[in-house]
Amino acid sequence: MSYIDTREGRLAIRQFIRAAMKVPLLERDEEQALARRWRDKRDVRALHKLVEPHMRLVISIATRYRAYGLPQADLVQEGNVGLMQAAERFDPDREVRFSTYAGWWIRSAIQEYVLRNWSIVRTGTTAAQKALFFNLRRLQARIERAGVSSSTPAATAEIARQLRVPTRDVDIMRERLAATDRSLNAPLADEAAAEWQDVLPDEGPGPEDIVRARHDRATRSRWIESALAQLSPREQTIVRERRLSESTRTLESLGNSLGISKERVRQIEQEALNKLRDAILRQAGDLEAVTD
Questions:
Q1: Ramachandran angles phi, psi of 189, nearest 5°
Q2: pTM check: above 0.70
């Protein structure tokens, strides 16, 4: 159990939130003066005075993401990281309040944390998927309030249109949000010996398929070797180097080795392949005759 899950940890979080809410807000002129002192003189005290009144903004934004099941303390901590990033990049000479600018950084930091930790499977790898992840529930709730099921094809198409994603992505994300991560080693039931991994279907080939494939490979290899034995040494060399080797040699290279032109190598190769085909077909025909 982590500290934040203990009674003392939860009490500390509540105390932190109450203290943050009591810090008075800054006037515009004071905010700009503090931001300039931090930007120009790296005055750490000015930095603290600038960000402390905005802790309530961090808490407010972090509260909106509690539905994803992550500890509020962690959300606030990530929001504070975004707040510090905003303070580092804030330009007091622009006509923008620090709270407006910082809100984007805080929200971005918290969203990245949620995406990293909500599931062991990475979610929201693109901007469109990220928007879908954080807006799907809100749009579904809006549709449900209108008395319409959010899972209908029409509702799905409307969500996809608003978020500019394919309808298939909406269906996949809906399934992802409805499910939770589950350990394969978790028991099927309380005090049960069987685990979830014990009931997973094996999508690989069955024993009969494995034996059949092994038999077919052995038969093909035997046929090919028997057919190759009917070729001349030069034909065998060309076929092995051109068709049965991992690193295929060129016609010109083989021609230089055998003392013939590359066109002659091509002709011999084609003749040898025809002989191989005929020999293999004869063996296959003999096998069918025996089977019948």
A1: -150, 170
A2: no
